[in-house]
């Protein structure tokens, strides 16, 4: 498989020594930076820059025709947005200071240390990516719009929180950095990952795998593959998912369950963009962008010693947290309609109507399983549905005792029967009045949560509707 180009805009190396040019190009290819242009005539550089956008320039100082310092000055004047790294055999401080004054990003002396030069180039690329992302994010947040709405069409929502997340995804989609998506089970983490992949317009495919329960051997084989003869049952070469996702997106779900040994291998893949198949000594390069997801608190996992801090800080460059369904109540009716439409088509039934109290019932529920749980409820209800009106019974049975009870009313009033002030005991309410006051507050809270629906409020309170009606009249 042919590696996709990295970075998107090429690196330009300017040096009059062709052997040096060739060795630098080969060196960058070995570390996965394969989009490189070479120029040995300094007079051609400005012309080339008008024709081709480049991400960074590596510039030699001692060249015929046009010296490096003169060319650096002209680049800064005409293309100030392009960072320049100066490479030269001159090792005096005065030259270095002058180059930095002219606008050089870095100054490296010959003979060039590979690690020093590669790290400098990677820092430039990361900084440029960050600048572009920040600029795009500011533009989108100020404009209040999503540039690629079609990529989010599969996510059913009218929540302002979700639309803000879409804008953020739009801004970071083209980055090469890893992305962490967190949120409870059933909130749509994989859907967001696929949307980011679609926005990025990466040429290759989206490859996803759930790593929960993987031991280190299974994780290594699944991600990196193996060669024939690597172990007893390895009859043929097998591509790993990293290789399958080359030029595309690799999505790792439930990353918080990954064991520590596997976390080390993932960290190396993120830092060095390299891996080895089982049984193969050859180091391979990867240009797959990695998105991970978890429903765990990774900060807490660090404190417990189950998740590496260095891996966490590598993943946290871009973090998306999806809100649970109970914080997106405006989406419940929209999702209900969507699932009813889909199930009606699949079951060859007419889409049913439903009683208005069903929405109040669903909005009063906590939904620990989030959207996936609502989807299961609708699927179950539609399976047994046979009349024009959708029965609420299936929903009531599924919700049952799990329905969200009102939390204790905050005790901040002097009339609160549980506030005992020894210095003013004369204000303590009689027991009968205190009980009545607490009951009133409890009923008010239940009616608020049920949006005035007595049936739902009675279920919240665990009493009959007749009993609630009597208490309200009283």
Write the layout of secondary structure elements.
Elements: E1 11-14, H1 18-30, E2 36-39, H2 45-51, E3 56-60, H3 68-78, E4 84-88, H4 93-101, E5 106-109, H5 114-143, H6 160-172, E6 179-182, H7 189-200, E7 206-210, H8 216-224, E8 225-226, E9 238-239, H9 241-244, E10 249-253, H10 260-272, E11 274-275, E12 284-285, E13 289-294, H11 298-303, H12 309-315, E14 318-321, H13 332-347, E15 353-354, H14 357-363, H15 370-384, E16 389-390, H16 393-399, H17 431-449, H18 454-461, H19 465-473
Helix pairs in contact: 5-6, 6-7, 13-15, 15-16, 17-18, 18-19
List the main descriptive attributes of the protein structure presented here.
Rossmann fold, 5-stranded parallel beta sheet, 45% helix, 474 residues, 4 domains, Helicase, Ruva Protein, domain 3, 19 helices, elongated
């Amino acid at each position: 498989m042919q590696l996709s180009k990295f970075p998107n805009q090429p690196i330009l190396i300017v040096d009059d020594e062709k052997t040096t040019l060739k060795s630098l190009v080969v060196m960058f290819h070995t570390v996965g930076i394969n989009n490189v242009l070479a120029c040995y005539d300094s007079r051609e550089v400005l012309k080339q820059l008008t024709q081709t956008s480049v991400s960074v320039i590596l510039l030699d100082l001692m060249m015929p025709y046009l010296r490096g310092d003169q060319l650096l000055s002209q680049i800064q004047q005409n293309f100030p947005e392009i960072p320049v790294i100066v490479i030269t055999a001159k090792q005096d401080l005065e030259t270095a200071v002058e180059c930095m004054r002219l606008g050089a990003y870095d100054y490296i002396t010959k003979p060039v240390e590979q690690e020093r030069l590669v790290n400098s180039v990677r820092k430039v690329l990361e900084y440029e990516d960050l600048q572009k992302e920040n600029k795009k994010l500011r533009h989108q947040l100020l404009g209040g719009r999503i540039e690629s709405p079609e990529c989010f069409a599969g996510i059913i929502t009218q929540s302002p929180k979700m639309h803000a997340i879409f804008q953020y995804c739009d801004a970071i989609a083209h980055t090469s950095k890893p992305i962490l998506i967190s949120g409870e089970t059933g909130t749509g983490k994989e859907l967001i990952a696929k949307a980011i992949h679609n926005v990025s317009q990466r040429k290759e495919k989206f490859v996803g795998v759930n790593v929960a329960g993987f031991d280190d051997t299974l994780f290594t084989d699944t991600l990196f593959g193996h060669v024939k003869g690597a172990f007893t049952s390895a009859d043929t070469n097998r591509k790993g998912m990293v290789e399958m996702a080359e030029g595309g997106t690799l999505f790792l779900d439930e990353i918080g369950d990954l064991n520590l040994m596997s976390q080390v291998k993932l960290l190396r893949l993120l830092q060095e963009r390299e891996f080895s198949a089982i049984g193969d000594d050859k180091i391979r390069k990867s240009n797959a962008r990695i998105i991970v997801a978890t429903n765990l608190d990774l900060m807490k996992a660090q404190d417990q010693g189950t998740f590496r801090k260095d891996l966490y800080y590598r993943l946290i460059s871009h973090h998306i947290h999806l809100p649970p369904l109970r914080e997106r109540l405006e989406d419940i009716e929209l999702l209900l309609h969507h699932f009813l439409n889909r199930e009606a088509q699949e079951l060859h039934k007419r889409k049913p109507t439903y009683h208005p109290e069903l929405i109040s019932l669903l909005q009063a529920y906590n939904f620990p399983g989030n959207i996936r749980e609502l989807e299961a409820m609708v699927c179950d209800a539609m399976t047994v549905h046979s009349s024009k009106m959708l029965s609420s019974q299936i929903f009531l049975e599924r919700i049952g005792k799990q329905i969200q009870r009102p939390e204790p009313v905050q005790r901040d009033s002097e009339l609160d029967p549980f506030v005992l002030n020894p210095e003013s005991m004369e204000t303590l309410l009689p027991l009968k009045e205190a009980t009545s006051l607490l009951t009133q507050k409890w009923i008010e809270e239940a009616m608020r949560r049920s949006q005035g629906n007595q049936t739902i409020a009675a279920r919240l309170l665990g009493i009959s509707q007749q009993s609630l009606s009597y208490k309200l009249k009283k």
